[in-house]
Design brief:
alpha+beta; five-stranded antiparallel sheet; three-stranded antiparallel sheet; 3 helices; 31% strand
Length: 148
Amino acid sequence: MFITRILPKEALLFVALLFSVPGLQAQEPPLLEEREREALQPAMIAPEQGIAPGSGQPAYTLRSFTRFGDRYKVTLLSRSGQTTTVSWRAGEPAPVGNSAGFAIASVGPGFVMLQHPPGDPCVIVPTAGVKCAAPDRSVLRLVVAPVP
């Protein structure tokens, strides 16, 4: 054979193995299947369901979050402009700074769920990355800042 004279038998075996095993072919597998991704996303309440806006500004917006293993570090920006960093671990609610009643309830792919106290309901502000999962729970996402 012409090919066997050019390439050693080991190289031919490698190439044959490469094309016969689907997992070895150059493909980019999805990180999460679409159904799994949808299952991880919290259900959203539509704005017309009567969540009282309070001051019209969300209590917190998401500035950043990082993950190392099962630990997260979340940086929030309050409506008064103060930055608060909170450490969170799965299954453990973490109070947000000195804000009585606010706590990080969960963190998922691309979002942070924030528990609100009874007197400060969720305010929907999509441009700030804030949606409501319930009157006492907001879902915070990172948003791209507008270019001046």
